[in-house]
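Give me the 3D structure for Leucine carboxyl methyltransferase 1.
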Amino acid sequence: MGDEPVMATNDDASECKRGAVQLGYWTDNYISYFVRNIDRRAPEINRGYFARVKGVDNFIQRFIGKAGSNAQIINFGAGFDTLYWRLKDEGVVISCYVELDFPTVTSKKCYMIKRNKPLLDRIYEQDGEVRFSSTDMHSGNYHCLGVDLRNISVLKDKLHQAEIKYDKPTLFISECVLVYIESECVNRLLQWLSSTFSTGLFINYEMCNMNDTFGDIMMGNLRARGCNLAGIAHCKNLETQRGRFLNNGWIGSKAWDMVEVYHSLDPTERNRIEKLEFLDEQELLVQLFQHYCICIGWLSNDFADFDIHT
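Predicted structure for Leucine carboxyl methyltransferase 1 (310 residues):
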C-alpha cells in the first residue's frame, strides 16, 4: 500500500476543517477552494478540530509576535493547509513560507492554486513572478514543494531552492505527520534541524497517551485504513513527546494534552462554539482530547517562556 493511505489523511483532515468552518467554528475564506464536498461530522470531531486549529494558532501568533517580519515558516506535511493565505489576510509579513508534502499532494495543491484566481492573486501580490513545475511552485515568499521528509538530502536541496536562511527565526509546524514516519527518520530530521538552524520553534500536534484501550481503538482504526503508525513509540505520553526533542539537540520542550489546551482557550470563544451544536457525549470528547497533544521544542531561549496560558 505504501504511502497512499497516509496521503489520504490530508483529504480527511481538510474535509473535517471545511465542515467545521461551514458550521461557524472559525473563519477560513480559503479552505473551500481545496475541498468541495463534505459529509457532516460528529460534534466532538468539530470541537476537536476547533481546539487543534486554535491551539496551534496561538503559538503561531506568539512566534510571529516575537520574530516579526524576519520570521520563516516551514510547514511539514502541509497538505491543503491555508495558513499562508489567512496570515496574508491578517496583514502578517513573513520573509519565507515553505510548505512540504509528498509530491502527489503538492502537485494537487499547485493545480488548485493555479485554477483558483483568489489563491493565486494573493501570492502574486508579494511578487509578480510565480513559477510552477509538476510538483512545486515558487514565488517571492511562498513555496510549495514536493519531498519525502525521510530523505534529508532532498529536503536540504528543496529548502535551498526556497532560499531558506538558517540564521533567521524559523517556525516548524507539524500536525499528525511525524507519527507516520519511522522513529529513526524523525530523529534524523530533528537532529538536522537543531544542528542547522540557529533559532526556532517547533509546534507538533499529534496523538499521545496511546497505551490504553481508547488508544488501541484509535490505532486499530488507522491501521484498518492502511496507515502504518511507524512513529507511534513517541506517542506513548507527554514525556515521550518532549523527549523526542530533548534527545535530538533541542534545548527545551513542553507538552500539553488537548484537555489543557482547550481549557486555555478564550472562554468567550469556547462559549460561542459550544452553542453551535449539542454535544451528547461529553465523555467521548474528553477521551479524544486526552489522546492528542501539542508539543513544542525550541532552539534558543527566545521561545523558552512560551506556554498555552498567555
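The first strand starts at residue 72 and ends at 76. Let me know if you want a second pass.
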